[in-house]
Amino acid sequence: NKATHKITATQVHPNDYIEWTKGNMYFEKESLENIMKTLSRIYDVEIRFDSNKLPNEYFTGTIPGGGIQNALNILMLTSPFFYEMDGSVIVLKEKL
């Protein structure tokens, strides 16, 4: 902290950094809401939820690089959603 001149130690997960150096993204117990914010920023797309339930789903795992569709297809394997793309807008919809 620059204002107080104190150093704070924080526990980190080595997988986060190891996977990042390989071009992958590692998430541990991360909400789909936060994951989609990350993907939106990385791939410069707008991602919307068509369900109030989906943002609160959680995912743990590694998503290799390879584009937004690859990332979404991997997330769909463990999460109850499908998606529709319209240009740079992606809408996540709950599987019924």
TrEMBL record:
This is DUF4974 domain-containing protein. InterPro entries: FecR_C, Ferrdict_sens_TM. Residues 25-91 form the Protein FecR C-terminal domain. Coiled coil: none annotated. GO terms for molecular function: sigma factor antagonist activity. It comes from Bacteroides ovatus.
